[in-house]
């Protein structure tokens, strides 16, 4: 019988799993590992984990036998049925009070279900988002745990030890809340990541096709931008990408096919926004932009038939202004994206009776994760100052930035239209901003139309909210409404 000497077990030795194990080992935790393909366990122990305290296992039973009570087992397997199947294999070897942790990109409703199902069996469940990619997993990710609150004290020290650290030294990990809240916050993080990447891509195309900048010039522009309000991991790596050469010495970026993949978390964010009635338009457009990119061959055929505007040119003396307008448009659009993401978090909090600490979430995202940036420090300050802030756009810092830069933002969009360059994320961000600040929208006409053809009723500006009316628009209709 194995002697229980390990602090935590981990199932799933793909790159993220391996790097988390090495991170845990670096912080003094003894880890037992298992992988369904057991040859991967042997290879990992003999290579990447050589000279560490990591212990390999050839069965789930063996791994669980190596764990101190209460046992803590972290799953780094593919989201969906693989998680449920792995839990079923684990259960015969666990006892009440043991902890199962799902560290994959699971759908939050699955984590809600698993929390309840395992609680009925006396097993504590945590569904946690882990962001930062391979490097983050190895040297310090952002960790967003939720689930059974009784499990948090049993993993808190471990998670906070291996997590990235914010500028103030605090760990980029704290308890999010019950049920699927941890994976929900990670889902919104990933949706915002989609938005950030799409915005950067649109800025790139405006600079490349609008100004004719080559890869070296683009690298310099993005390196400069990383010294401004846009200082972030994604801007930093974008500059590095433009500087990367292929084997023949040409820019590698120009050799990469323009079709983008996706794993589903952006789509889940957009679906949740629709379910909750939240106008998270920028993330939605970012998902659709990836879908459009996948129509590579069809776009090629359309390009031979559909015409755009006559090629406009930017005067040599206007290049610096053009670049600055795009930078400001990117910054303003980024503010809108995060404001929408936080609107969604607040709506989910109300719907599911969570108590999300929005300032703490910004802090958790400020280090280790893909969207880490100086910008998140400003969001933390906004919610620390006003915890019930209606919208980030109402905060003095962000409203001030939008008011200051909006002329440049609009000019960048005019450039895009004149040049025939698609900027769906820039466009929807500006449209949302203008819609959000408009006192009277044309929805009165929309509601009149609904009442005309479907007797759906309407409210009146001269009557209290919640009082509904129906008109006999044609003189031959009925007074009966759809309700």
Write the layout of secondary structure elements.
Layout: E1 8-11, H1 15-26, E2 31-34, H2 38-46, E3 55-56, H3 60-65, E4 72-75, H4 81-90, E5 99-102, H5 108-120, E6 124-131, H6 133-139, E7 142-147, H7 152-162, E8 177-178, H8 181-211, H9 215-225, H10 233-243, H11 265-276, H12 281-293, H13 296-303, H14 319-352, H15 358-365, H16 375-385, H17 396-419, H18 424-436, H19 443-454
Parallel strand pairs: 1-2, 1-4, 2-3, 4-5, 5-6, 7-8
Antiparallel strand pairs: 6-7
Offer a concise description of the structure.
The chain has 483 residues and is an alpha/beta fold. It has helices at residues 15-26, 38-46, 60-65, 81-90, 108-120, 133-139, 152-162, 181-211, 215-225, 233-243, 265-276, 281-293, 296-303, 319-352, 358-365, 375-385, 396-419, 424-436, 443-454, and strands at residues 8-11, 31-34, 55-56, 72-75, 99-102, 124-131, 142-147, 177-178. The longest helix is centred in the C-terminal third of the chain and has 34 residues, at 319-352.
